[in-house]
Amino acid sequence: MPVLASHLLAQRELRLTAVTDPGGWAEVPISWSSTTELEDPVPFLRGGELVLTTGLRRRTRREWDQLVRDLVAVPVAALCIGIGLVHDRVPAGLRDAAERHGLALLTSPVEIPFIQISRWTADQIFAEQYARTRLMIRLQDEIMGALLAGRGLRHLVAVLAHHLTAEVAVLDTAGTVLEQHPSAARWPVEEVAAASNQPQAAATSGTVSLPVRADGVVVGYIAARGPSEQVTLLAPTANLVGLEIARRQALVSGGRELVAQVIADIVHHGLPEKEAQRKLAQLGLDPQGSHRVVVASSAHAASLLRQRPLDLVALLQGRSDLYPMCPLDDGIVVVVGADGDARTVADRLLRYLDGRPAAAKVGVSGLHRGSHGIRIGYHEARHAQGQGSGVQECRTLSLPGLILSSADLPLAELARSLLEPLRRYDADHGAALEATVRLYLEHDGSMAETCRAMNLHRNSLRYRIGQIERLLGKRLGSTQDRLELWLALQVLAPPDD
After folding, report:
1. Same domain for 394 and 299?
2. In this model, does residue 400 exceed pLDDT 70?
3. What's the number of CA atoms in the CB half-sphere (13 Å) around residue 75?
4. Residue 81: beta bridge partners?
5. Are 285 and 396 in a shared domain?
6. Tens digits of residue pLDDT in 42-101
7. C-alpha–C-alpha distance, residues 147 and 170, integer Å
8. Handedness of CA 421, 427, 432, 438 (dihedral sign)
9. Domain match, 199 and 109 both
10. Which of 30, 183, 341, 465 has the fewest CB neighbours in a 10 Å radius?
11. Among residues 357, 381, 405, which one ends one of the domains?
12. Residue 229: is its pLDDT beyond 70?
């Protein structure tokens, strides 16, 4: 407990008497005592002091009023004037000013030296600070033990609530309460945000919310609501929790990098089947089983997974990823067995990435067997991402679709090279040959359907097709040439296609 003005009055040996009684002043904490006879003591005060004076400097009513207003502005806890040395009673100007401006005014008899009051105050302050230090050490020891033992957030929050005599909660970065004690407590997101943004005001109101940082990244918040002198002990706890989260996150990230090496070898480098099966088994995956692949992407998704816990509760309980997961290329890849729930994984990843600078896209593949199935599933999930933002489940992936989803092929460069003669001709002559061949292929080479779509005469369409074939050196009657042109047009399709 801090030293309060009411504690001073309760000490009979100090023989202090309250002259004025501003509302609530007796419960104001006293930070220190300061004896002064200066004309203007304000520059030497920090706030919360018990100011002691004999009134040696004689003051007019106006001067007493100015002094009291200045002390209230600091503000000090109270002003105590010694009676019997300079003044036989409280100066009327001082009493009136104290009542007018709401300053707590005390008197002490000449028999009680100021040093006795100051010593009692200092002893109580040091005792309170010592008790807080002991509590902080005990709290840190117990918290660290709980963290190292992997007892999880529930135990951590219960320990904090007990030692701080406060309501305590841990929230994620989205404001969702992960754990709280007591369970009936309510933590509006707005209240937590206000406490985080205005820590001094929050401490005064009894609510403190501190960000938990792991390697400089905010991974959640610890909030407490209770006696202000207790909840301020939350800061060292938040630092401890952040250090432990960073340590555990580094271990988890190391394991995910091993997963990334295996998945990259299978997806991009064509790892031999036997070797792939051996490595999949090391990851806890059935090499002969069927799997779905989930790929989630947004700006900096892969780096985010390395920095911020996907599941803070599971991390502090020492649980590993439910399914093999890793950062790969520009996204997050998860391999889900046939008995797993890939859709739930995808929804969770979407929530994890939501609010990033670019809209999150999550693709879910079909079910495929073995290491080759994982490779196909990866490209299916990538292809599904092209269907739009949010969670998209892959339709059956065709061979052209698989080709188009591959990031390893220089498709855009090849497509631009193939179509460059058409695009240059269109630009020079204001023609529409690229649009013509696109519609012609979209209508399966039907002259009648293409003419209707473009409102063209049949002879005009034949003339355009002849121009296209001459410029490109291709024959639109050839299946191979048609497929090559169709792929090029798909790669360079306009954004609204």
Report:
1. yes
2. no
3. 12
4. 53, 107
5. yes
6. 999 988 889 999 998 889 999 999 999 999 999 998 999 999 888 999 999 999 999 999
7. 14
8. positive
9. no
10. 183
11. 405
12. no
Indicate whether this model's pTM tops 0.70.
Answer: no
Q: What is the residue range of 44's domain?
A: 5-122
Structure confidence at residue 25 as a pLDDT band (50, 70, 90): confident
Beta-sheet strands, E only, within 275-394: 290-297, 325-328, 331-337, 361-364, 368-369, 390-393
**Cα distance between residue 449 and residue 465, in whole Å:** 14
Give per-residue pLDDT as tens, 138-194. Answer: 777 777 777 677 777 788 888 888 877 888 888 888 778 888 888 777 776 666 666
Q: What is the CATH number of the domain that holds 377?
A: 3.30.70
> Which of 212, 299, 281 is CA-nearest to residue 249?
212
Instruction: Retrieve residue 83's tokens.
Output: 């009676």
pLDDT band for 468, please (50, 70, 90 cuts). Answer: very high
Q: What are phi and psi of 4, to 5 degrees?
A: -110, 160
Work out how many domains the chain is built from and give that number. 4
pLDDT, mean of residues 210-232: 79
Same domain as 452, residue 330 = no
| 426 and 479 inside one domain | yes
User: Is 335 a member of any domain?
Assistant: yes
Are 258 and 345 members of one domain? yes
Distance (Å, whole) CA 351 – CA 362: 10
The answer to whether residues 417 and 463 belong to one domain is: yes
Does a structural domain hold residue 131? no
Q: Residue 429 contacts by C-beta under 8 Å, 6 or more apart in sequence?
A: none
Say whether 428 sits in a helix, a strand or coil.
Answer: helix
pLDDT tens track for 348-371: 999 888 755 457 899 999 888 888
Evaluate whether residue 373 is within a structural domain.
yes
Residue 361's closest CA among 409, 393, 337, 395?
393
